[in-house]
Amino acid sequence: MAKIIISAALTGAIHTPSMSKHLPVSPQAIADEAIAAAEAGAAIVHLHARDPETGKPDQSPEAFRPIVQAIKQRSDAIINLTTGGAPTMSIEERLAPAAQLKPELASLNMGSMNFGIFPMLDRTKDFAHDWEKPYLEGSRDRIFRNTFADIEHILTTGTENGTRFEVECYDIGHLYTLAHFVDRGLIKPPFFVQSVFGILGGIGVHAEDVMHMKRTADRLFGADYRWSVLAGGRHQIRIATMAATMGGHVRVGLEDSLWIGPGKLAQSSAEQVALIRGIVEGLGLEIATPDDARAILSLKG
Ligand code: KMH
Ligand code: ZN
């Protein structure tokens, strides 16, 4: 039976430090979280970086370098660098860490969209840093830009470096955009499709949404794709479980959800990895090691 790949997304650019004291911010904390998640069963660690003083997303290659070095010294987990960065950043800025550090995997966001993080304002009383509130508020009037030209630029730069992609699809149209790049021969199978559920501006978190994504991807890509699923916030584990029962791979981590249960903050991404690992193994399925995942996704290693 095929093994299930667990990805752990450790810090991201959606949540801000005042939402949870457990969100890792410094290079050391992000690397430690990555290693703990890998030890708990994650084969892939998806990385963003932050300014250690303020916790603001920092997309400079210099911010990523010490994180990547520390992880490589202590783990063979697959390193997946964000090219999404944050919706406030330019495409060149977003691409720079992956272009310079040439990881095995990088994210590739498949369409421009609204990306609403402003509802989180309601849940946070006090902000420790000046940037946090306007950053969240600004998502009312900000577009997460991923034009066809942007996607092609990231795709061709990464491919020249031997980097393959976690293809992030936030809606059904993004699958058709992937099909367009497949038709043009710009991406080769197996495609690692990360379906993203529950971002305000993308597809929702109903079981029918998950079924529709899977059915559409099956029809468009047949045996040429590997399906992984993430859901934002409190829906994370429910949707990951649903995907696992359908043979999908799963992504968890504090980038996607700060929670481990109703009203209970997760202390780490590793805690979420351990939870979903227990569910996957309880279903009688096996988790993939990093080398299993390299084989499943045809990575350079
Ligand atoms: N934050 C996730 C919903 C990226 O880094 O390219 C999507 C993400 C984007 O991981
Ligand atoms: Zn990310």
Automatic annotation (TrEMBL):
Task: Say if the entry is tagged with keyword Phosphoprotein.
Answer: no
InterPro entries assigned to the protein according to its UniProt record, in alphabetical order: Aldolase_TIM, BKACE
Alphabetized, the UniProt keywords read: Metal-binding, Transferase, Zinc
Cofactor(s) the protein needs: Zn(2+)
MF (Gene Ontology): 3-keto-5-aminohexanoate cleavage activity; metal ion binding
The residue range of the signal peptide is: none
Q: What is this protein called?
A: Uncharacterized protein (DUF849 family)
Give the organism the record lists: Chelatococcus asaccharovorans
